């Protein structure tokens, strides 16, 4: 059985790691390059960086950060935010990123998934999906969760897989920031529908939550931010706990 992956997520704004609640009240959580190096030393399997205020003016800053991170790291890392065309993705991959993550741009132009997969390979394309339960359905949200769409989450993820997405980063907005656990029901349901890896995101508050999402939803990876940034959970401790629960991890 493949090892399950533990992935810290760094939200980057103006070159700094930030963390808020429901995308507001952002507070500084440190230098992203320094944090990345610490997580790699602790045993993180991968990292995800999200440029949460991405614009073309800031793209140059992000590329410089990617180069700095790539010099520090020996584990794969994914960059997302502001990628709307092939040239954006190419610049980030050339700077040293291992994968790119797309979200709103893919909903607005689904062919972007196809184009990226064809240009760089399926394994480079991570589709990030922000989902919230509204009126009895799981709905895809855009623009950092602020804009609801008519898309049903399950249908969109299936379509994305067909178009060439290599991995799904699924964030439950209902669980995000609550520290009450991942949305194991939805994650398990979608995992049975598709044949590509799923990264669970939203709701991590304890080591038990990681054990639960791997056991109940059988996801491939679990992602978290603040519990790692503020030292509430240390990755070596988490991996030992998962190992005790017979979940395969790289120690």
Show the helix and strand layout.
Blueprint: E1 5-13, E2 16-21, E3 24-30, H1 32-42, E4 47-51, H2 56-72, E5 77-80, H3 86-95, E6 99-102, H4 104-108, H5 111-120, E7 125-134, E8 137-142, E9 147-152, H6 153-163, E10 167-172, H7 184-193, E11 198-201, H8 207-217, E12 221-224, H9 226-229, H10 235-244
Parallel strand pairs: 1-4, 1-12, 4-5, 5-6, 6-7, 7-10, 10-11, 11-12
Antiparallel strand pairs: 1-2, 2-3, 7-8, 8-9
Helix pairs in contact: 1-2, 2-3, 7-8
Catalytic activity: 5-[(5-phospho-1-deoxy-D-ribulos-1-ylimino)methylamino]-1-(5-phospho-beta-D-ribosyl)imidazole-4-carboxamide + L-glutamine = D-erythro-1-(imidazol-4-yl)glycerol 3-phosphate + 5-amino-1-(5-phospho-beta-D-ribosyl)imidazole-4-carboxamide + L-glutamate + H(+)
Subunit structure: Heterodimer of HisH and HisF.
Protein name: Imidazole glycerol phosphate synthase subunit HisF
How would you sum up this structure, described in words?
The protein contains ten helices and twelve strands. Helix 2 links the parallel strand 4 and strand 5 (77-80). Helix 2 (56-72) runs parallel beside helix 3 and helix 7 packs parallel to helix 8 (207-217). It has an eight-stranded parallel β-barrel with strand order 1-4-5-6-7-10-11-12, surrounded by six helices. It is an alpha/beta fold and 251 residues long. The longest helix has 17 residues, at 56-72. The chain has helices at 32-42, 56-72, 86-95, 104-108, 111-120, 153-163, 184-193, 207-217, 226-229, 235-244, and strands spanning 5-13, 16-21, 24-30, 47-51, 77-80, 99-102, 125-134, 137-142, 147-152, 167-172, 198-201, 221-224. The protein has a single domain (5-244), classed as Aldolase class I (TIM Barrel), CATH 3.20.20.
């Amino acid at each position: 059985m493949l090892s399950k992956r533990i992935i810290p997520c760094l939200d980057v704004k103006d070159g700094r790691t930030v963390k808020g609640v429901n995308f507001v009240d952002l507070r500084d959580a440190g230098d992203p390059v320094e944090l990345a190096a610490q997580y790699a030393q602790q045993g993180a399997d991968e990292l995800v960086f999200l440029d949460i205020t991405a614009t073309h003016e800031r793209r140059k800053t992000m590329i410089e950060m990617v180069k700095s991170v790539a010099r520090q790291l020996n584990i794969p890392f994914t960059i997302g935010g502001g990628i709307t065309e092939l040239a954006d993705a190419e610049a980030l991959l050339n700077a040293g990123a291992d994968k790119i993550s797309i979200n709103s741009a893919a909903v607005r132009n689904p062919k972007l998934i196809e184009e990226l997969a064809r240009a760089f390979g399926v394994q480079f394309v991570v589709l990030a999906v922000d989902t919230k339960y509204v009126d009895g359905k799981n709905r895809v949200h855009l623009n950092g969760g602020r804009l609801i769409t008519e898309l049903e989450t399950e249908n969109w993820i299936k379509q994305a897989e067909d178009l060439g997405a290599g991995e799904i980063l699924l964030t439950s907005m209902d669980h995000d920031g609550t520290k009450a656990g991942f949305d194991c029901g939805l994650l398990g349901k979608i995992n049975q529908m598709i044949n590509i890896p799923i990264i669970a995101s939203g709701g991590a508050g304890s080591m038990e939550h990681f054990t639960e999402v791997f056991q109940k939803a059988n996801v491939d990876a679990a992602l978290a931010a603040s519990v790692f940034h503020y030292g509430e959970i240390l990755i070596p401790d988490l991996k030992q706990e998962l190992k005790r629960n017979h979940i395969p991890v790289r120690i």
